[in-house]
Amino acid sequence: MPPTPSPARPPSARTPFGHALAGLLDVLLPADCAGCGAERTQLCPACRHALTATRPGPTLLPWAHAAAPYADPVRQLLLAHKERGALRLAGPLGEALGRAVRSALGARAGAAPLLLVPMPSARAAVRARGHDPTLRLAGAAARSLRRAGLDARAAPLLRHARPVADQAGLNAAERRRNLHGALTVLPRARRGLADRQPVLVDDLVTTGASLAEAARALADAGLPARAAATVAATAVHPPGQYT
Length: 243
Prior knowledge:
- With about 240 residues, this protein is α/β, with parallel strands linked by helices.
- About 35% of the residues lie in helices and about 15% in strands.
- The protein is built from eight helices and eight strands, in the order H-H-E-E-H-H-E-H-H-E-E-H-E-E-H-E.
- It has helices at about 15-30, 45-50, 75-85, 90-105, 125-130, 135-145, 170-180, 210-220, and strands spanning about 55-60, 65-70, 115-120, 150-155, 160, 185, 195-205, 225-235.
- The strands form two sheets. Strands 1-2-8-7-3-4 form a six-stranded mixed sheet, with helices on both faces. The protein has a two-stranded antiparallel ribbon with strand order 5-6.
- Helix 4 (about 90-105) crosses helix 6 (about 135-145) and helix 7 packs parallel to helix 8 (about 210-220).
- The longest helix has 16 residues, at about 90-105.
């Protein structure tokens, strides 16, 4: 029998009831800051500042912008939301993702309604976590963009077409080969979306192989992505480096 989780750190929600319970505990019980461990606040001012202190900029893919480097405390915030059920972090992380969307689109941000397309999570991972963290972040980013006056919505249009090997330990070329042809677009994707600018979104970009495969799948379905955005990146280049 597994040990009883500490009430200060809600358990991963592995069923609909567990998901609801984790969200309730997340709201009602005091928790330490997910970024630095400061007491009785899930996100302290310093860690919140870390999400906003860096100007969003391009990654290894010049058309994909990130809000912050993948370093602590941002790394810890993403892991807490994704793996430990810290659901309230979706709001501030989604705001950071929304800033990266605006940075990636530049002057095109208001040219047409936006469609944020999250990178798909494997079904087994969603079952284990009790929620889809990337879809949750996409929804939070869309709400942030609407508050800024932009017409934005999120829709899970992508799914896995075949299994892929674990990406850990693979270099960039191996990741591209591993992912090639792995994603496809849901049949309903084209309905009612022709007037929207698709923007790929994810929590993290490393080599860019996953985003490139997602862009291929959307383009093949007649929905070419205008840009991509992530909360964090392992390499963020100074604005203006790519011309």
